[in-house]
Amino acid sequence: MPRARSGISSPIPSVKFNEALREILNRAIDHFGPQNWWPADSPFEVMVGAILTQNTNWLNTKRAIENLKQAGILNPHLILKRRRILPRLIRPAGYYQLKSQRLINFVRYLIQQYRGSITRMRQRPLFMLRKELLALPGIGPETADSILLYALNKRIFVIDAYTRRILSRHNLISGDEDYDQLRIRCEENLPKRISIYKELHAQLVMIGKTFCRRNDPHCSDCPIADLRGLS
């Protein structure tokens, strides 16, 4: 059962965008509890997971990462050294040949630019890192921003299909905004705190997976079912 909320009145039939983001975060935390994302043992594992989870679910990604761990190569230098066995190990994540090459391209970049050091990479300014990541084959905005936020602790909000679907269904966005338009709008209406960016994104994923499904939404049980944006 959801915990009793404090400080937020409910229901709110129509709200401004910034109020809606706050309400979504509070209600989702009350329902699901804090998520403390990203589920990984190291920043590099987050980076690998962000690449492997493209066009697949997290369970498949987790299986692929476990294979890398069991093989003892969840390390940028070892992935590059043993790249021939990479497709077999990450097969559960799907598109394993394509993702193998994307992962190899990424670790080459990490080694060439930062000697394989996450610490060195983290010292680079956000806008420079984002430009570098987006220049890599197969690294789009969502993957790049996931790496920046969760692995490098850079203040940037991640937009995914769940976020777009939830905000659109609740009349908070038109639905045709491009990625960066929606990202910037969220950032402008959130407190400038990395922890809030991480938690809100994670909670939106939980709402999307549990209630706001693409083909079979469960609106009656959703903790934000009554939330509507201003027309």
TrEMBL record:
<dbReference type="GO" id="GO:0019104">
    <property type="term" value="F:DNA N-glycosylase activity"/>
</dbReference>
<keyword id="KW-0411">Iron-sulfur</keyword>
<dbReference type="Pfam" id="PF00633">
    <property type="entry name" value="HHH"/>
</dbReference>
<dbReference type="InterPro" id="IPR003583">
    <property type="entry name" value="Hlx-hairpin-Hlx_DNA-bd_motif"/>
</dbReference>
<dbReference type="InterPro" id="IPR011257">
    <property type="entry name" value="DNA_glycosylase"/>
</dbReference>
<keyword id="KW-0227">DNA damage</keyword>
<keyword id="KW-0378">Hydrolase</keyword>
<dbReference type="InterPro" id="IPR003265">
    <property type="entry name" value="HhH-GPD_domain"/>
</dbReference>
<comment type="similarity">
    <text>Belongs to the Nth/MutY family.</text>
</comment>
<dbReference type="GO" id="GO:0046872">
    <property type="term" value="F:metal ion binding"/>
</dbReference>
<dbReference type="GO" id="GO:0003677">
    <property type="term" value="F:DNA binding"/>
</dbReference>
<dbReference type="Pfam" id="PF00730">
    <property type="entry name" value="HhH-GPD"/>
</dbReference>
<dbReference type="InterPro" id="IPR000445">
    <property type="entry name" value="HhH_motif"/>
</dbReference>
<keyword id="KW-0234">DNA repair</keyword>
<keyword id="KW-0004">4Fe-4S</keyword>
<keyword id="KW-0326">Glycosidase</keyword>
<feature type="domain" description="HhH-GPD">
    <location>
        <begin position="52"/>
        <end position="210"/>
    </location>
</feature>
<dbReference type="InterPro" id="IPR023170">
    <property type="entry name" value="HhH_base_excis_C"/>
</dbReference>
<protein>
    <recommendedName>
        <fullName>Endonuclease III domain-containing protein</fullName>
    </recommendedName>
</protein>
<dbReference type="GO" id="GO:0051539">
    <property type="term" value="F:4 iron, 4 sulfur cluster binding"/>
</dbReference>
<keyword id="KW-0479">Metal-binding</keyword>
<dbReference type="GO" id="GO:0006284">
    <property type="term" value="P:base-excision repair"/>
</dbReference>
<feature type="domain" description="Helix-hairpin-helix DNA-binding motif class 1">
    <location>
        <begin position="131"/>
        <end position="150"/>
    </location>
</feature>
<keyword id="KW-0408">Iron</keyword>
